[in-house]
Amino acid sequence: MDPLSDIVALLRPRAAIAKPISGRGRWGVRYRAYDAPGFTLVLTGEAWVALGDREPLRIAEGDFLLLPTTPAFSLYSEPGVPCIPAEPLAEAVRHGEQEGEPDFAALGGSFSIESVNAQLLLTLLPGAIFIPASAGRGTRFGRMIDLLSEECMADHPGKELVIQRLLEMLLVEALRWDVGGNSAESANLLNGLRDPAMARALRAIHEDVRTRWTVAELAGIASMSRSGFAARFNEVVGCAPIEYLVRWRIAIAKQALLSGAKSLDRIADDIGYESASAFSTAFSKRLGCSPGRFARRHAADAGGGMPAAS
């Protein structure tokens, strides 16, 4: 698989919460950060979102905002409105005046992911992906938005199931959209896949993670000098090439350890270590615990849920 497919398959995202969010009049709410991917699809009207210390963003009908990991943020009807603290809820939310037709309506919520590798979202993906209605119109993404909006407004049998499946498809499509040219503010995997030379190196790593890659070998695949490739990779992806390789190997190992289906020798061989001992040393150095202890600890923690969306 390609790098993006690999990561999506490893994280196994699914729509955990999808709920109506509406508002009328003047209103503003503020939410704390939580480590779950969040999304908002505006169905009607407009509102403003302030993510951390970023400039406020106006969101309007048809706009889609995806937050691979959700920082503290404020949502409000118009600039200058005081924002009150609010707690994430799993059910429909109504802001401002409680009576009358809302002048803002959206579908919002969060995706659940395999929490053991949730850190990948912080290190490999951008902080936010915003696709305005004007950009998505006439594209496959736009058609998916139309389908989702139609399903939200209707009352067909199986509505909740269809919404969940459409949202899961929309998550991947939004990430692919970013690969296709959405502006990005920082180094990340999507930027790497956007760069043809870096993409060739990234695909080589994912196609054969067992290989003991060197920077020189990856530079050759990218058709660049060793020093030029190393500098470019770090600038675009956000880490050194061998660091990326190690992060990906450890992510695969974590998943294998939790499944309990493979021995340490097999896991070590699958991800390119000479022996179980070499793998255990590398794993312990990076995570501060042995593979066995890691597996036992996370097995004991299994069953914990992800925070709800705003």
Automatic annotation (TrEMBL):
SUPFAM superfamilies given in the database record: Homeodomain-like (SSF46689)
This protein's UniProt keywords: DNA-binding, Transcription, Transcription regulation
Top-rank taxon, per record: Bacteria
Record domain HTH araC/xylS-type: where: 199-297
Protein name: AraC family transcriptional regulator
